[in-house]
Each structure stands twice: as C-alpha cells, then as structure tokens.
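Dear Dr. K.,

Following up on our conversation at the group meeting, I've run the structure prediction for Pol Polyprotein from Phytophthora megakarya. I'm pasting the input sequence below exactly as I used it, so you can double-check it against your construct before we proceed with anything downstream. Let me know if the numbering doesn't match what you have in your notebook.
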Amino acid sequence: MRILDVTGKEIDLQNPIPKDHLTPEQQKRLRELLLSFCAVFLGGIGKMKLKPYELPEKKGGTPKAKRPYPIPLIHREATLREVERLVKLGVLEPDKDSPWAAKPLAFWSKKCNQAQERYTMNKKELVSIVEMLREFRTILWGREIKVYTDHKNSVESTFRNAQMLMWRLEIEEYGVTMIYVRGRENIVVDALSRLPLREEPMLAAAAKLAAEEPPEFSLSLEEIAETQQHVGL
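The predicted structure tokens came back this morning:
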C-alpha cells in the first residue's frame, strides 16, 4: 500500500511527516498544536510553555491562537488578599523564591519632637508614613508600595487641615496605595504590644486576689449597736 501526498511524493508510514516537508515555522506551529491537544484531551502531558491554540470548529479550518484571559483588577486584588490570608494562617507554605515569602528588609523608628507630641493620632499616623518614605526613599522610589493602616481617616484623600493635605500629596508622589485594616486584624503592627506579660510573683498574687470573691460583711443593726456600746460610743 502506497500513500502519496498532495505533491505526489510517497509518504513513509514510519515517518509520515518528514522534517524536510515542513518549514521551521510549520514545525513550530505543529509542536504548539500537539502540546495544546495534549493539554486539552490528554490531561496536560508535559509542561506546556507555548501559546495555546483552539481547534477549528469547522472541518478544514485552521487552528486559531487563544488570547490569555484578562483577570479583572478587582478579582486579582481579591485573589492576592486571599492568598496572603492563607499564608498567614499557615495553610499555604510558600517557596523561598515565591513572592509570598516576603521578609522584612529594615526596621525604622523615630522619636517625636515637642511639636509632634502634641499632634492628634491621625496626624501622628500620617506623619509617620511621610517620615518612613523619606528615610527609605532610595529603596522605595519607583516601586509598588502598599501601606496598611488601621486609621481610616488616613485612607481618605480629602483633609481640611492644610498640613495633613501637604503630607498626603507628598505620599502620592511615591504612588502609594493606602489600605485600611481594622485594628483587631492588623496583628503585625501590634505584635509587640500583644505579647503575654512575664509572670512574676507580685503580679500573680495581685491577679489571684482580684479573682477571689470579696468577703461578706454583716450589716445587722444589732451587731452595730453592740460594737458601739463595747467601744463606748
């Protein structure tokens, strides 16, 4: 039995598609099509790294390249938050090269001056962000920055105070995304203040006395009168 191709050449059944019959571009597209076929119908044999193709619906049609599905920004942020939550709970264990395996690069603290000590809590929260950005300007400039705060007023973009408005505009120069987190959920910031106190003898004794029920005192008028007579009142 002889099988001829469209050009009249005999096709070897052991090698039905010789390489010399296909151009390099055709060979590349054939490999991509076979990989797509395996990924769809054979459970994804091999790791597919090339562009996937859709099989034509009509007979004799040509394969059509599929575009990647664009995930909406709101869905992407929700997915990232869910992954971060699972990582914090220990459900997911990121690899050392994973972007979720983030580690602190630096710690920074600064004492307030006399003027800053009289600031309200909202102004202290905002000025701390400004001072932090100024300190690490060479590292943070041009990068994606997210600031998590438990002060909801700091997230707002409108301020009646001129000084706070200037600080907010300076923060905007870095392209910072302000994210509000409730105080009880912002465990990273308050980690040191939430550590259990060291058990000392005096503290343990005070806690024991506070837990005990107070003694009952009698308010009988007869006992009060007898006591007054005994004292001589």
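Two things stood out to me. The first helix runs from residue 24 to 41. Strands lie at 53-54, 64-65, 145-149, 176-180.

Best regards,
J.T.
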